[in-house]
Amino acid sequence: MTHSLLGRDLLALADWNDTELLDVLETAAELKLRQQRRKAHPLLANRTLAMIFEKPSTRTRVGFESAMVQLGGHGIYLSPRDTQIGRGETIGDTARVLSRMCDAIMARVNDHATLVELAEAADVPVINGLSDWLHPVQALADALTIREHFGSCKGIKLVYLGDPNNVSNSLLEIAPRLGMDFAIGTPFVANVDQQLLAQARLQAAANGTKIIVTNDPLEAVKNADVLYTDVWVSMGQVVAEGHLEALQPFQINAELLAAANAGSKVMHCLPMHRGEEISADVADGERSIVFDQAENRLHTHKAVLVATVAGLALRRSKRLAA
After folding, report:
1. Residue 319 carries which DSSP code?
2. 269: annotated active-site residue
3. Do 162 and 265 fall into the same domain?
4. Which residues bind L-ornithine (predicted)?
5. Active-site residue identified among 8, 108, 177, 268
6. How far apart, in whole angstroms, are the C-alpha atoms of residue 303 and residue 29?
7. Which residues, other chains included, contact 304 with Cβ-Cβ below 8 Å and sequence gap of 6+?
8. Cis, peptide link before residue 80, omega less than 30° from 0
9. Is residue 8 included in any domain, yes or no?
């Protein structure tokens, strides 16, 4: 079926309505099934994705590049050394040139404003592969993973533990819209994005869910179904003295996991530092779904590309719940 996302950007999950988000998750589930069955799905044959990387990545690069190959197209990796941006060409001019040669642009950038400038000048869809503010493609993969393990996102309590960042920001955007309670457990409560928090609380009120922000890790994980964390020091981040010590009570370990619901799962967007934000026994334990989550980056990348470049939404024989 044709899709309203044709030609649309994905800079933030707020750019898309609830139906569009569910359609992309459904498409991702169908494309994952086709890939598992080795059923060819060249939905983007002869299409090209420009991939701008200001910051290096494993999952974003391999996920998008493999996605284009499996969809019958091609991804072009562009590091700072591969473009003229670093030598004075404007972001707008780069966007205009890439729009003439490629069918979409994915950018992983240091500053969210770079994405906004790209999107304003480009005539093709611009996809946020990560910015300092948001990480929407990660949150989509997270939602798909939760649906796979729990059957639905509705009624799930998802808890993010650690330093508020672009990942927790995108989870704030998506969790209440999919019917999840969402808690942030952090010693740095004041660092939670207030704009996104206010919007998430409005969404939660409309959907009958809860948003919790607390500096008590035990309060955060009470009745939790999913415990989620990220590195305590992001790439290039300079932290104040005492930063790591303040975060120590928020490490996902056996003790904190025992305070959550029986059967709760553990997620991490990777890369992870065992012994810091997560203990090795939990990271590699039977309740960890970290690598399912990593794999789902591929399938959700494909769904975003199929929707925005080809305008397609796919359906499985039985539609999954939110």
Report:
1. P
2. yes
3. yes
4. 166, 230, 234-235
5. 108
6. 9
7. 10, 24, 127, 137, 140
8. no
9. no
- 102 belongs to the catalytic site: no
Binding residues for carbamoyl phosphate: 57-60, 84, 108, 135-138, 269-270, 297
Tell me whether residue 237 is one of the annotated catalytic residues. Answer: no
pLDDT, one tens digit per residue, over 62-113 is 999 999 999 999 999 999 888 877 677 899 999 999 999 999 999 999 999 9
The tally of domains found in the chain comes to 2
Which residues form the domain of 150?
136-294
Selected catalytic residue, list 9, 103, 132, 230 = 230
297 flagged as catalytic: yes
Judgement on whether residues 240 and 149 belong to the same structural domain of the protein: yes
Catalytic residue among 8, 61, 268, 297: 297
In a domain, 317, yes or no: no
Binding site as annotated, residues: 57-60, 84, 108, 135-138, 166, 230, 234-235, 269-270, 297
Does 226 lie in the same domain as 304? Answer: no
- 159 and 262 share one domain: yes
Q: Is 230 one of the catalytic residues?
A: yes
| Residue 200 C-beta-side C-alpha neighbours within 13 Å | 27
pLDDT digits (tens, 9 = 90+) for 251-304: 999 999 999 999 999 999 999 999 999 999 999 999 999 999 999 999 999 999
pLDDT of 228-259, one tens digit each? 999 998 766 777 789 999 999 999 999 999 99
Pair (114, 218) in one structural domain? no
Q: Dihedral sign for Cα 105, 230, 86, 114, please.
A: positive
Q: What pLDDT sits at residue 317?
A: 47
Structural tokens at position 262: 């029986």
CATH code assigned at 37: 3.40.50.1370
Annotated catalytic residue within 3, 135, 268, 299: 135
Catalytic residue flag (residue 138)? yes
Residue 127 pairs in a beta bridge with 10, 106
| DSSP for 219-263, written as a single string | HHHTT-SEEEE--SS-TT----TTHHHHHGGG-B-HHHHHTS-TT
Residue 241: what pLDDT?
85
